[in-house]
From TrEMBL:
Similarity annotation: Belongs to the synaptogyrin family.
InterPro entries linked to this entry: Marvel, Synaptogyrin
Compartments reported by the entry: Membrane
UniProt superkingdom: Eukaryota
Keywords: Membrane, Transmembrane, Transmembrane helix
Annotated Gene Ontology cellular component terms: neuromuscular junction; synaptic vesicle membrane
Species this chain originates from: Donacobius atricapilla
Protein known as: SNG2 protein
Family annotation (PANTHER family): SYNAPTOGYRIN, SYNAPTOGYRIN-2 LIKE PROTEIN-RELATED
Regions crossing the membrane: 25-49, 69-91, 103-125
Mode of membrane association: Multi-pass membrane protein
């Protein structure tokens, strides 16, 4: 039968297979993987230097804010996925419907906000990449493209 705010009645046994098959859990796992890819690409290869100058700069048109934004939303999205994943695990044990309602609304609101922030990140990174001179990027072009691509995918996964 139906329960309050999309969950069964509180106190049931935890079924891992049934839990992982839930659409919101699958979407959360995918979102976490996409966020991990974005910030790992930017941390790993998002900064480079010219052969004659050891000073590091962001591969996105030398704009440090582009790298910081991508890393920031990627890390926060990954942490939020972990938090909401834990909420999903604990959710069936919550018997108070008011608490359930607030958790569902918080998840919905955060997902809407993060969808918007991923869209802004995709546009920002794409714009900065379009202004990047090819001679400035020796290593890291593939990582920059991957960060842009998975920022785009994250819009839909959130």
């Amino acid at each position: 039968g139906g329960g309050a705010y999309g969950a069964a009645k509180a106190g049931g046994a935890f079924d891992l297979v049934r839990f992982v098959q839930q659409p919101q859990v699958l979407a959360r796992i995918v979102s976490a993987v996409f966020a991990l890819i974005v910030f790992a690409c930017l941390v790993g290869d998002g900064y480079t230097s010219l052969p004659d100058d050891p000073q590091l700069f962001c591969v996105f048109n030398h704009n440090e804010d582009a790298c910081r934004y991508g890393i920031g939303i990627g890390v926060l999205a990954f942490l939020a996925c972990i938090f909401f994943f834990m909420v999903d695990v604990y959710f069936p044990q919550i018997s108070n419907t008011t608490d359930r309602k607030y958790l569902v609304l918080a998840d919905l609101g955060f997902s809407g906000l993060w969808t918007f922030l991923w869209f802004i990140g995709f546009c920002f990174l794409t714009n900065q990449w379009s202004w990047t001179r090819p001679g400035d990027v020796y290593i890291g072009a593939d990582s920059a493209r991957a960060a842009i691509t998975f920022s785009f995918f994250s819009i839909f996964s959130w």
